[in-house]
Structures are given as C-alpha cells and as structure tokens.
Amino acid sequence: MKHLTIIVPEAQGNLSSIVGAYKIFSRANQYHASRWKGEVFQIQLAGMKKEFELYDGLFAIRPHTTVPRIARTDLIIIPSLQHDVVKPLERNAEIIDWIAGQYRQGAEVASICTGAFLLAATGLLDGKNCSTHWNAAAQFKSRFPQVNLVTDQVITDEQGIYTNGGAFSFLNLLLYLVEKYYDRETAIYCSKVFQIDIDRNSQSPFIMFTGQKSHGDDMVRQAQEYIERHIDGKFSFEDLAANFMINRRSFDRRFIRATGNTPATYQQRVRVEVAKKAFETTRKPVQEVMFESGYTDVKAFREIFRKLTGLSPLEYRNRYNKEPGWAMEAY
After folding, report:
1. CATH number of the domain that residue 30 is part of
2. In the chain, at which end, N or C, are there fewer CB atoms within 10 A of the end residue's CB?
3. Could you tell me the pTM of the whole model?
4. What is the mean pLDDT of each run of 10 residues along the chain (331 residues)?
5. What is the residue range of 266's domain?
6. In 106-146, where do the E strands start and end?
7. DSSP E strands: which ranges in 65-133?
8. In this structure, is residue 210 part of a structural domain?
9. How far apart are CA 315 and CA 41, in angstroms?
10. Residue 59's beta-bridge partner residues?
C-alpha cells in the first residue's frame, strides 16, 4: 500500500482543501476496495504539532502524526493557504525542506491553489509550469520569477509535481490524482458522489482582471489609468510614451516589469473585462458590446475574447447571464 501525506501547515491552512482531500481519497479507497482491488493509500494528515486552530479558533485539526515522523511517503498534498501567504512561508521552513527531501526520494507532490507558494519555496518548481489562484498571480510572479506561471490552467502535471488553480477547482486536481493512482472508474465514481465536473482543464472563464496596480511605479499606474479611460484606443502607445517623456522601448520595458504585460496586452485585457461585464449584466447584442469594448473587427474580437476567457462571446454570455428572454444570436 502506498502512503499519502496531507500537509497541515503552520499559520493559516485552508480547512476545505484539507478535509476535501481526505474525504475524496478515503472514498476512493473504499470504492476501490469494494471492487476487490484493495485500498491504494494509507492516508495521514501531518503537521508540526498535535493540534492546529483555524479561522480564529472556530475549527481545530488534530493531525494523525507529525511530519518528521514520516520517513517515506509516496504522494504529498499541500493545501491552500489563506490570504496572507508570507507568514506560512516563514513558519514552515522545516516542512518545506521535508517536502524537497521526499521528492528527491521519489515522492510526488501536489499543491492546491495558493499552496503553490509553499511548493515553490522548495525550489522544485523552478523552470516548471505552475498554476495557482488568478488573484494571487502577481504576488507569485514577484516572489518566484523563476517559475513559469500559467494561471489559465486548472491543473499542471510535470515530473511528478502537480499544481492547480484557485478555490474549489482543487476538486478537479483530486479527481485527476484519483484517476492516476486508482483508475478511471474510481475517478468517475468520485465525480458522481461528490458532484464534481470531471476533466475541467481551464480556469480562464473565472479570471477577473483587476488592473495589477500594486507595483509602486507611478508612471506606469498613470499609463494604466489612461488606457482604462480610453477604451476606444484612439491613441498610439508611442504618443502615450512621449507624454511621459520616455521612448517607446523604455516605456514597454518599464510597463512589462511593473505589470507582467505589454501595454498592448494590458489594453486587450481591459477591453475584454469591459465586454465580460456587459455580457454578465446587460442584454446588449454581441456586436454592440464589441464596439463598446473598443473593437471594430468581429474576428479579432472573437479570437481575443476566447484566448483570454476560454469561451466565445456568446458562450460566455449564455453561461453568466441567465435573464429570460434572450433572443438567439448567430455568432
């Protein structure tokens, strides 16, 4: 039998991802055994102390064991962290070293949502793809620039290291791991019991672009605000750079360093966010939303919208606006 370790980190572990992992793998064990194939994992919660309080003492977790007592494990699951991801990095140095050591001994490692910060601190993600919650992307990129962050993906799988996107998308990662370690039938069974959509692979439709303004560069912030005020795009980036008495090349470099996007990509994301809000809250036709978002070419609008959301404009509207009376629109 293999060994599964679900980490209970110091400082702000996330209860739902810990309990969710425990319940799904426990049910997978039961179902697999009911088919005379035996249990796959011995499942243990492990931390650095006997009890952890969460949510200001509202809940408590009592792990099965402590991390140092586990000499060898086969799969490690790192749960999501709370909003302050710095404190767990400071207080889990011993767990971080243990995870790295177990990986070198052959264990596989999976992080849930912002648990990617703890995983990245091991150095194991350097040069690899990683997903995390889209809302933590800027902070992650700043702290771990050597990791290739791909926030549009729900799951990454690379050299025995798995990561996933935000919030309850961790359920999709757990099903993915159940299929890998058990079989497809067990994964489908768990998806039905827990009512989880199986094989979801993108979190793009859920991403809300919030402007990336926590960088401290006042010139770039002013440029961002100018782009946001002029959705129609009736200006050139050369002129915008000149307004700040800087050449276009230097302007682009500074903008990318501050936001992680080129000015043109930033403009696209702002426009698509405007379109998304219109589709969610109004009954305007797709073409009208396209014009109000600064686009005049239907093909370009459709391609950029799908690239950033994973859905066509019509698919997005039908998913997120459920007002009755929509006229069917060929688009």
Report:
1. 3.40.50.880
2. N
3. 0.67
4. 94 83 97 93 95 84 95 96 81 95 96 95 95 88 92 86 87 92 92 83 60 81 90 89 94 90 91 89 90 92 90 87 55 42
5. 218-320
6. 108-111, 129-130
7. 65-66, 75-78, 108-111, 129-130
8. no
9. 40
10. 54
